[in-house]
Each structure stands twice: as structure tokens, then as C-alpha cells.
């Protein structure tokens, strides 16, 4: 039995990044893993951007994107699923801000502010990062009630480093069947 009523469902934004291996394939696999979960529906995907590394410079360019999901999961459960997906896809934590097969960051959940040792929402560095804001702007609707649209565009107007974020490809995500070939 589904224990969640539709009023428990909120929209969440998740940033994805990869700079090792087949970056696009890994990002599509990460989206498939999210969608596989019974309580998550991926509703929008940004374009894919190739981005210069920020923070730790001696590493390959990243591919970054953002997805919007609708979910009945609590924020902490969503985060632990995201960490599990990173591990499943081969992520190792070696250098802070360093190279990674895949990274999933929980950016924003409508109406939720969290500040615990495991989770901070909104993500504390999201408004400083062009590699997050540019793809996020692809998929946040202007009528977004929470004010995210306004905050994001205000930050985007002022932020430096947008030239390090280059459109690469449109997203080819068309549901899990697209990956399995079914
Ligand atoms: N909003 C959030 N999204 C993802 N992780 C978060 C968030 N808030 C707190 N964390 C915590 O941060 C820890 C480290 O995350 P991670 O290794 O992905 O950091 P990072 O990618 O190196 O740096 P950054 O967080 O700046 O992207 C996670 O284990 C998680 O508990
Ligand atoms: N361009 C880019 N740079 C980064 C990224 C990322 O996803 N893209 N992630 C980091 C770790 O949080 C550190 N630096």
C-alpha cells in the first residue's frame, strides 16, 4: 500500500557532475537509478554543460547538469539514496573538490530548510557556482512559487565564471527504457 498522500510529494532539484570515465553515460545511469526508486519521478532535465573545474584546478573538465524530481521521500532519505547511487557508480572520495566518476548534490526542496551535520538545505554553495546555476536556470519555471526562480537569476546576473560553463549537449534522458534498450 502506498503510505504517502499526494500532499506529501515535493519537488527537489539535484545537481549532477562527472569528470572521469564516460561522463555522459554515468550521468544518464545516475538519473536511471533515481527514477528506479518507487517514490521518485524525474520530471525535468537540464542540458549538459562542459565546465572548467572549480576549487581544485588540476583535473579534467566536468560535465554538469541538474534534474528536478518529484518525491515523497524525506530529505535525509533522498540524500542517502543519492550517496548510495554515487557508490554504486564507482565514486571514491580522495581529494576534496577533486576528480570524481559522479557527484550528486541536493540543491533545494520546496519549502524545506535543513541544517544538520549530514544535510544542509538549500545547498550552502549552490548560489556561488555557475556550474550549478546555469543548468538550474534551464529547468526552474518562472512561476516557481518558492522564489527559487528570482534568487537563482539574481545570483546568475552577478556571478563570475559563467564563461567556464559551456553548453555541450541536450539531455537524452527518455526514461529507463532508453538505457536498457527495451
Ligand atoms: N545539500 C547537500 N547535498 C549533498 N551533500 C550534502 C548536502 N548537505 C550536506 N551534505 C553532506 O556533504 C557530504 C560531502 O559531500 P560530497 O563528498 O559530495 O562533497 P563535495 O562534492 O566534495 O563538495 P560539495 O558539497 O561542495 O559539492 C555528504 O556526505 C553529505 O552528508
Ligand atoms: N566544474 C566543476 N567543478 C567542480 C565540481 C563540478 O561539479 N563542476 N564539483 C566539485 C565538488 O563539489 C568541485 N569543482
A few lines on this structure:
One of its GO terms (biological process) is folic acid biosynthetic process. The chain has 182 residues and is an alpha+beta fold.
- Mean model confidence by pLDDT: 90
Q: How far apart are the first and last residues' alpha carbons, in Å?
A: 28 Å
CATH class descriptor name: Alpha Beta
The biggest beta sheet is recorded as:
6 strands, antiparallel
Number of helices: 5
Order of helices and strands: EHEEEHEEEHHEH
Keywords: ATP-binding, Folate biosynthesis, Kinase, Nucleotide-binding, Transferase
EC number: 2.7.6.3
Organism: Paenibacillus anaericanus
Pathway: Cofactor biosynthesis; tetrahydrofolate biosynthesis; 2-amino-4-hydroxy-6-hydroxymethyl-7,8-dihydropteridine diphosphate from 7,8-dihydroneopterin triphosphate: step 4/4
Structural summary, described in words:
There is one protein chain. The chain is globular. Strands 1, 2, 3, 4, 5 and 8 form a 6-stranded antiparallel sheet that branches. It has a two-stranded antiparallel sheet with strand order 6-7. The chain starts with 9 loop residues before the first strand and ends with a helix. It has helices at residues 23-36, 75-88, 130-139, 148-158, 177-180, and strands at 10-18, 40-45, 48-51, 62-71, 103-109, 114-115, 120-121, 165-169. 30% of the residues are buried. Helix 3 (130-139) packs across helix 4. It has 182 residues and is α+β, with helices and mostly antiparallel strands. The longest helix has 14 residues, at 23-36. It has a single domain, classed as Alpha-Beta Plaits (2-Layer Sandwich), CATH 3.30.70. Bound molecules: adenosine-5'-triphosphate (ATP) and 2-amino-6-hydroxymethyl-7,8-dihydro-3H-pteridin-4-one (PH2). Adenosine-5'-triphosphate (ATP) binds next to helix 2, strand 5 and strand 7.
Amino acid at each position: 500500500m502506498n503510505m504517502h498522500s499526494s500532499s506529501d510529494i515535493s519537488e527537489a532539484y539535484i545537481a549532477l557532475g562527472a569528470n572521469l570515465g564516460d561522463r555522459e553515460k554515468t550521468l544518464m545511469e545516475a538519473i536511471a537509478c533515481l527514477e528506479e526508486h518507487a517514490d521518485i519521478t524525474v520530471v525535468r532535465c537540464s542540458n549538459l554543460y562542459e565546465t572548467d573545474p572549480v576549487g581544485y584546478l588540476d583535473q579534467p573538465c566536468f560535465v554538469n547538469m541538474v534534474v528536478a524530481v518529484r518525491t515523497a521521500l524525506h530529505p535525509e532519505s533522498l540524500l542517502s539514496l543519492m550517496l548510495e547511487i554515487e557508490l554504486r557508480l564507482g565514486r571514491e572520495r580522495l581529494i576534496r573538490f577533486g576528480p570524481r566518476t559522479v557527484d550528486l548534490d541536493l540543491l533545494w526542496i520546496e519549502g524545506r530548510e535543513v541544517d544538520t551535520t549530514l544535510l544542509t538545505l538549500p545547498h550552502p554553495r549552490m548560489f556561488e557556482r555557475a556550474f550549478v546555476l546555469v543548468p538550474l536556470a534551464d529547468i526552474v519555471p518562472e512561476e516557481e512559487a518558492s522564489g527559487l526562480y528570482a534568487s537563482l537569476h539574481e545570483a546568475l546576473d552577478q556571478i563570475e565564471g559563467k564563461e567556464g560553463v559551456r553548453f555541450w549537449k541536450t539531455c537524452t534522458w527518455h526514461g529507463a527504457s532508453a538505457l536498457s534498450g527495451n
